[in-house]
Amino acid sequence: MKNELLIHNSLTGKKEVFTPLHEGRVGMYVCGPTVYSDVHLGNCRTFVSFDVVYRYFQYLGYKVRYVRNITDVGHLEGDADIGREDKISKKARLEELEPMEIVQRYMNGFHDMMKVFNVLPPNIEPRATGHILEQIDMVQAILDNGLAYEVNGSVYFDTIKFEEKYGVYGQLSGRKIEELFSETRDDLKNQSEKRHPSDFAIWIKADPNHLMRWKSPWSVGFPGWHLECSVMSTKYLGETFDIHGGGNDLKFPHHENEIAQNIGACGHAPARYWMHGNMLLLNGRKMAKSEGNSIMPGELFTGNSPHISKGYSPMVVRFFMLQSHYRSTLDLTDEALQAAEKGYRRLMEGNKVLQSLAHPGNGAAGKLDEEINATIDQAFADMNDDFNTPRALASLFELVTKINSLKAGQLAITDITEDTLNRLKKTFNDFINDIFGLRDEMAATSGDGVIEGLMELILEIRQEARARKDWATSDKIRDALKALNIVVKDGKEGTSWHLE
Ligand code: AMP
Ligand code: ZN
Predict the structure, then answer these.
(1) Whose CA is nearest to atom 19 of ligand 1?
(2) What region does 386 belong to: left with phi over 0, alpha with psi -120 to 50, or beta?
């Protein structure tokens, strides 16, 4: 599989052949969540999309350094850059907690949800508050290069000077400085310190009641939201690296300003390829908590939402996400989820049937060899075409049809060689486990309720042990189940279990 990998680069608006900066290695930075509330399904879609990118690079044999940050300071309400409250500070104030308690709570919840969706952890997960000194250094470097100015303890990036010097501001989003002027005119009272409305804060002097604050040469304050990603990508991936990703709602102002900051500090742009995932919609509208148009992952799993008729398991939801290309919007509807549930089952069943097929031994090439090998090649070609997961899935489903015919005897197993059968088996396992990251949830739910029956029996035995205070037996059962990734929970309503 020596095909070239094509990536759609948002900087040029074109699909380009991926050539890594260092042979055999990929450095990738993706903007992580702002941890001030429970992670919503839109965020999950973006992280699943980049999880597949990460997995596929690894599958191709690249050594990947994947950095995905945690935003725990500086992201202001309404994505403003001055004059609004920090999202985390606000939550801390409302709940009378330490900001770091808020951060810890929602970061833990985020990590749990990533595990539920089988999203691999990044190699480095840096936090903005852990990199304040480096952020101060970058502000200083930008000031030293004459591309920022200080007013009353806050420091602003000078977009006019930047454009004069480098001739580009807005390369990624296509925004023009003049347009930004008219867009932001209404908000000028918050902008009074800025020389130009398109300038943005890189260091903000804290109000007396602001909770998160650090000393700097300019004031006691905190860094602007966009600065952390410039600083942490540079620190862990270098001044230039391969890929920067995020949802396409971050193109402007976040990523545009990141590029300006990196160029402003060290003279060149950070990432060579910018990848943007598209939004998750709910019944046709962007899923956003602020608009009351969202489903939380937990509601989706239990079915406890007016938008859906029943619960859907995490792997069905992951499969649903893979069924659309990461650059297309994905509209979550009950019907689409039902279709995804069928599709997921068909794929997993197909693989089970495939792995059970036996071959009498290699013979001459059969009449199906060429077609099956071509379809396998096509599935990889689909992935090499800007990570086209829906088309790769369609190729696998063509193969599932063949597998089912082989099983039913409509096609003879000797129509393919043993080598082809083995390649087919490996392809399915690689795609399902390594590239798509789909766990087999069917293992626990198939078999006509045998597993449920067994679990009921085991939990009953454990309950009896607990009733007679035989903790050794009860713990032994729980630990043995845990080793099988079955989590047992004791609650008020009795004992329940689920697959981790
Ligand atoms: P935030 O926590 O708001 O900073 O967002 C974390 C990540 O989720 C960013 O990459 C956003 O672009 C992405 N995101 C936010 N809303 C959605 C949505 N409705 N669909 C897909 N991605 C989203
Ligand atoms: Zn970012």
Answers:
(1) 42
(2) left
